[in-house]
Design goal:
extended; 473 residues; 24 helices; two-stranded antiparallel ribbon
Length: 473
């Protein structure tokens, strides 16, 4: 075969460093982006953040937009004023920063144990018991295992001689003490024991205390299966009396340990803000996150004055990197704003009427509307949040598949979930709606949904089946 040269014309996408940087910034979350900007400011001397205009901040003009932002987002000056104070040397002291760190259940119980007057041996028994309690408040080991572990530690710490021994009677009083620590009911071996301890600590004159204790001790299995007919027959209680006893049991905590160390709040900072102004829905970037960057002209001018070639190359390289970073950041904000506005335009019914008015929407629909690739839309909507009058939602929340209707139209799966939740909220708790009944009710509204689909949506919303939703009252 003879060798020859051929000339072909074609197109090829090249991933330049600038394009790679733009794609990476596009998919970063708010927190990651702030860290990326801070890292760029620290490593690139040609890049600097613009200082806010102090004159404008000192005398702001009141407007409906500003009031909305201050009320929902909160300004930095407001947060400092509510949780800080000036010290004698003129420095700001943030009292919230000095708040006690949140402790876990074991630390909370050990703190109470250390405040109790116990012998060294009983204190050791209590420590072993507390270390065996899980986050829900239940014992992970049997009393025999606790006794064995305590005996070994007691001999190692010379609290007991090698010939001494411990009995279960030595463990029970300390365990009983811990079970009445805060929260009441921790240290129980099972649910029945925990509920029993909580009921026994109620005031003697608590209405229906004895009836609730009898149900817990003798017929907890019937209560678990919600067999109220058998429960009324076994307890010989009339329906009003049984209802009062069950209400008292519902006030108890089946996982007492969850009260400690489980309430740490998680905050989400929205990327865009949606509000209705003069009858139109407006979408803006979160002003708290907008950090304007610029080129440091002082350092940039040194490129022409540098006497050494290495210094000139260093400044020019960092100058180009700074320009690329600023351009990529602007492109990210423009893309995020363009996609968010299109989402709001499509889902305007949601903002006006709620979840039941949500329209079917997929990535391809937005990609065509804004003339971008679906992968770009996917990056923009991942870990990006929108603050609306109805709450804060991830951008991906507004995308959902569709279900056909009798009229030939389409209904969003999110809207169907909202309808299912509404039907269950308004159902008769004595006769809860089955999945098949819910499917029939939706069918009467012109929405074709199979029973299996109803069950899938219900489970996704953590709603139990009809037999578990049944209540006596």
């Amino acid at each position: 075969m003879k060798t020859a040269l051929q000339l072909k014309l074609g197109q090829q996408l090249t991933m330049t460093p600038q394009l790679q940087q733009a794609i990476r910034l596009l998919q970063l979350s708010t927190l990651d982006l702030q860290q990326e900007i801070q890292s760029a400011l620290e490593t690139n001397p040609l890049l600097e953040a613009e200082e806010p205009n102090q004159t404008e901040e000192e005398t702001p003009e009141w407007s409906e937009e500003a009031a909305f932002e201050n009320w929902n987002m909160g300004s930095s000056s407001h947060s400092k004023g509510s949780g800080s104070q000036m010290s004698d040397d003129g420095e700001t002291m943030d009292w919230m920063a000095n708040a006690t760190a949140e402790t876990d259940l074991q630390d909370h119980l050990l703190w109470q144990l250390n405040l109790t007057s116990l012998t060294p041996l009983d204190h050791l028994i209590g420590t072993v018991i507390i270390e065996s309690i899980d986050s829900c408040g239940y014992l992970c080991d049997t009393k025999e295992e606790l006794l064995k572990a305590t005996l070994k530690l007691a001999k190692e710490q010379e609290l007991l001689s090698q010939d001494d021994s411990l009995e279960l009677e030595d463990v029970d009083p300390v365990l009983h003490l811990i079970q009445h620590f805060d929260p009441i009911g921790v240290g129980a071996e099972n649910l029945q024991e925990s509920l029993r301890i909580q009921v026994l600590t109620l005031a003697p004159d608590t209405p229906f205390k004895n009836e609730a204790l009898f149900i817990i001790e003798q017929h907890l299995d019937l209560l678990a299966h919600k067999d109220f007919t058998a429960l009324a027959r076994k307890t010989k209680l009339k329906e009003p009396e049984l209802c009062e006893a069950l209400n008292l049991i519902r006030m108890l905590n089946p996982r007492p340990g969850n009260q400690i160390g489980q309430n740490q709040a998680e905050y989400i900072v929205p990327d865009v803000i949606v509000r209705k102004l003069q009858g139109e829905w407006r979408v803006d970037l979160n002003p708290e996150l907008s950090q304007n960057l610029r080129i440091n002209e002082t350092y940039a001018s040194l490129a022409r004055e540098a006497s050494k070639r290495e210094d000139a190359h260093f400044i020019k390289d960092h100058l180009q990197e700074a320009k690329w970073f600023i351009k990529s950041l602007q492109s990210r904000n423009e893309t995020l704003l363009k996609v968010s506005r299109e989402i709001v335009s499509v889902q305007e019914g949601f903002f006006e009427h709620g979840e039941e008015a949500m329209k079917p929407l997929v990535l391809h629909d937005i990609a065509e509307a804004v003339s971008m690739h679906e992968s770009t839309i996917s990056r923009v909507t991942t870990q990006k949040y929108m603050m609306t009058p109805k709450g804060i939602f991830e951008l991906k929340y507004f995308f959902s598949s569709h279900v056909n209707t009798h009229s030939g139209g389409e209904c969003s799966s999110t809207a169907i979930r909202a309808m299912i939740k509404k039907l269950i909220a308004n159902e008769n708790t004595r006769k809860p709606l089955s999945d098949n009944k819910i499917a029939n009710l939706l069918g009467e509204q012109g929405i074709n949904v199979a029973r299996r689909t109803i069950a899938k949506y219900r489970e996704a919303m953590n709603i139990p089946p009809s037999n578990e939703r049944k209540q006596l009252i």
